[in-house]
Amino acid sequence: MTSETISRTTNTPKTEAELAEIVAGHFAGCQPLRTMGGGTRVQADHIAGDTLTTRAMSGVVTYEPGEMTLIARAGTPLWEIEAMLVSEGQALAFEPPDLRGVLGSDGTPTIGGMVAANASGPRGIMAGACRDHLLGVRFVDGQGRVLKNGGRVMKNVTGLDLSKLLCGSFGTLGILTEVAMKTLPHAQARGTLAIRGVDDAEALRTFTTALATPFEISGAAFHDGTAWLRIEGLPPQLAYRQKRLQELFGAYEITFLDAEATVTLWRDLRDVAHFAGTDTPLWRVPVKPSDAPALTASLRALGGQTSLDWGGGLIWYCGPGEASAVRDIAPHAMLVRRGGVEGSAFPRQSAAVERLSQELRRKFDPAGILNPGLMGG
Amino acid sequence: MAMPQPDERILERAPQIVTALRGVLPEDAVIDDPQETLAYECDALTAYRCAPLAVVLPRTTAEVAEAMRVCGVMGVPVVPRGAGTSLAGGALPTADCVVIGTARLNQVLEIDTDNRFIRVQTGVTNLSVSEVLEPHGFFYAPDPSSQLACTIAGNIAMNSGGAHCLKYGVTTNNLMGATVVLTTGEIVELGGAELASSGLDLLGLLCGSEGQLGIVTEAFLRILPRPEGARPMLIGFDSPEVAGECVARIIRSGVLPVAIEYMDEPCLRAVEDFAQAGYPKCAAVLIVEVEGSPDEIADQIARIRAIADELEPVEFRESRNADDALAIWKGRKSAFGAMGRLGDYICLDGTVPVGQLPHTLRRIGELSKQHGLEVANVFHAGDGNMHPLILFNANEPGQLERAEAFGADILRLCVEVGGCLTGEHGVGVEKRDLMDVQYDAPDLAMQMEVKDVFDPTWILNPAKVFPLQASAAHRLKAVQ
Ligand SMILES: Cc1cc2nc3c(=O)[nH]c(=O)nc-3n(C[C@H](O)[C@H](O)[C@H](O)COP(=O)(O)OP(=O)(O)OC[C@H]3O[C@@H](n4cnc5c(N)ncnc54)[C@H](O)[C@@H]3O)c2cc1C
Ligand SMILES: Cc1cc2nc3c(=O)[nH]c(=O)nc-3n(C[C@H](O)[C@H](O)[C@H](O)COP(=O)(O)OP(=O)(O)OC[C@H]3O[C@@H](n4cnc5c(N)ncnc54)[C@H](O)[C@@H]3O)c2cc1C
In this protein, which residues make up the domain named FAD-binding PCMH-type (chain A) (predicted)? Predict the structure, then answer.
């Protein structure tokens, strides 16, 4: 039986209460639920059960630019959030990627899906990931209980930080209904140094040098012989940092990309556009940066191509390598685009971490109805 | 503040417990001499004291694991301890507990500037981490005011922040990995030298968990290149509202200072008497610090000056050199000492949304009259983390209780305006029984179920963080 022939009910609750009722019903009947936001993630067909989407739970609850805080319902489209922030000169500093191109999916990415995936892009090297900007959540657990954690303030150490757990849990602990995020002022000026004609090892050396300067490099990526360094800030900061970095890398062939080119380039790097439009499996591998050149060489030996982000701390591998071979080289590899590869998309954890994770999952979802089979559960 | 009665059955077995610990640890690692255990009777919340049954000071993760295993098997509560600078009573022992301290876990294990991390045993002090990094041109960003004494272990357990966290975040944003000893004695590695890990964010859960989930023995910390320079400016206003407005406008303008500190009039008075910092006489002073090259700094100061000028400050003083900078920070740095001279005080730690600062300050003033106790405010304004200091006289019966009641009212106010009970000092025993102001019963129940996963019999720092009544059933499991 192919996935298309499984008949599923799609639940599209409009309120938190309605959502809680649906989950409580499925909990009582031990019926699995396949949770989603905008459904831009493909390859979820193997997850059993009815679909539950937060798509209809949309809208910004509060946005206070002077406090740098935003609270939105989980189903709010990300583009809507981003447009609103831009109008106030702010942004989500961690640059959540839009992987529709890479995944060949349609639909609209939601802010809940972003948090559930801890979706974070190139600026993570300076600003941290989604989880670093998440202030609080409301969610419905696997029994249909409406719970909250954190709040809407920058600093909060009141009790255990369950928000962090929910962030990156891919809908396996609970269904987010509302998220509170920290926003940041959008840099007023930006530019990119492009260092051409280098290989992985040289790219890494330029990254290491640049990232040891106080110039707040906000992106350091490499693909196809070019290493890019993004700088941002107030206009005088940009001019000064550009000058100092050009001096530092005087021996290389450098071009400077202006603001407009910078925006386009880093959007493409963020969305891994260079590996879009094919079916070849795509892997995302966090590494210790100094290991990156050797790892990329080993991965390319399996066939395919690699690129680097996060100053060498993240390898993208697009190639036909077998899952076991990829994971032998890179144990932390996560499969983002299946391209026919079987097995779990998530890397294996140590036995102790796996046990703790599964026990946590049982506390949040005692009947095992939330995205069963995903994340090893 | 109520603490559960010590368990008689544990007290009776004290000699066997100490013998068992001595059996697995080096001779000098176990302390049970009542003269010596007295040094561990409290943390910086000194109103509450109780010497522990014994103190263990291991030198390695393996020794922590051995000690933990013994306590686990024998059902003895364990209170982890760093330097004991917690202000919430998080490291407060009970008579039937063993304190496991990180004081001797003080090795720097690895400095890796190419991969921008430092790996340490968690008993190192916060300041010493930045000191060993200095010759490399790097620093560790979280800088609690207690940094001279407090340990990375305590920082992780409390998710501590400091004056510079507006720009650099708090501990959780700078922690890449940790080695944790579970109550079974099992050693678990979370995260590491990579910038991201997949799977559930157990490291994020651990950070700020106040010694509820495991004992942290080693850590990977993210390090940053040192800025070229930094300069503060001082801005005085004759109204707290306008000072609050200035904070919001700076943040909206796109300039991101590394610190925005706020001192109110009672605090300014005390500081002037104590330190003669030469601050203006006014209702509120902001200290704003920016970083960068000399030109970058000049540009940022000019932008902030333009914002402040629109609000007609009483004074705008920018530092031109290191001496000016020192003079501007002098009063702020001595604020706690200055207040200490006026009498006893309790230091609160609520956070409010920045926009609610003026309203909150006004209400605190009203509550001060109502309770008949003076209060002074000095805090990190950029992120709304307030530290009202309530002055009282500990020698006068009933005054501590009055100060605590006033403090509880202020913390309720913080939650009421959309904030939280604690921004950096933690819940400990101090705010334990206020937790239900911020969280409903099911929210707390879920948190306690999470503790169950890591510590099924609740032997790690029980009677902290969660309201005693709410946690009673969980704690009972330890006894059975
Ligand atoms: C295997 C895989 C790995 C990925 N890894 C990353 C990554 O590491 N970093 C990254 O930036 N992007 C990653 N992505 C892309 C990421 O899924 C999307 O950027 C984002 O989640 C899209 O939002 P959406 O609303 O379309 O989510 P969907 O595609 O609908 O769902 C994404 C995930 O989040 C869950 N989810 C959605 N809404 C909620 C909610 N309200 N509450 C709880 N759970 C919810 C879903 O169950 C699903 O697991 C990955 C995609 C796949 C397929
Ligand atoms: C004058 C002064 C100024 C302060 N300023 C700040 C400030 O600016 N910002 C701020 O955030 N805090 C501040 N604090 C509070 C305090 O210094 C911090 O919370 C600090 O992180 C505590 O570290 P410590 O080593 O003293 O920990 P301790 O006080 O010994 O312990 C604190 C908590 O951590 C737990 N713990 C200790 N070691 C471990 C371990 N190895 N594993 C698991 N749990 C453990 C303890 O059980 C306890 O719950 C200040 C305190 C003082 C006295």
Answer: 1-186
How does pLDDT run across B87-109, given as a tens digit for each residue? Answer: 999 999 999 999 999 999 999 99
Residues A309 and A230 in one domain: no
* Final residue belonging to a domain, choices A221, A252, A270: A270
CATH T-level topology, domain B8-101? 3.30.43
Nearest ligand to the CA of B212 is 2
Do A148 and A68 fall into the same domain?
A: yes
Structure confidence at residue A3 as a pLDDT band (50, 70, 90) = very low
What's the predicted TM-score (pTM) here? 0.96
Number of A/B CB contacts below 8 angstroms equals 246
What are the pLDDT digits (tens) for B217-233? 999 999 999 999 999 99
Evaluate whether residue A342 is within a structural domain.
no
The tally of CA atoms less than 13 A away on the side-chain side of residue A128 is 22
Q: Enumerate the CATH 3.30.465.10 domain ranges in chain B, comma separated.
A: 108-140+149-159+171-225
> Which chain A residues are closer than 8 Å to B137 by Cβ?
212
- Helix B265-275 to helix B335-342 angle (10° resolution) is 90
Whether this model's ipTM surpasses 0.90 comes out as: yes
Closest Cα in chain B, distance from residue A288 (Å)? 5
- Determine the distance separating the centroid of ligand 2 and the alpha carbon of B158, expressed in angstroms: 6
Q: What is the DSSP string of B255-272?
A: ---SEEEEEEHHHHHHHH
d(CA A19, CA A41): 21
Across residues B454-464, what is the average pLDDT? 96
Q: Looking at the complex, does the CB of residue A351 fall below 8 Å from at least one CB of chain B?
A: no
Nearest residue to B386 (alpha-carbon basis) of B363, B413, B352, B355:
B352
Distance from Cα B272 to the centre of ligand 1, integer Å: 55
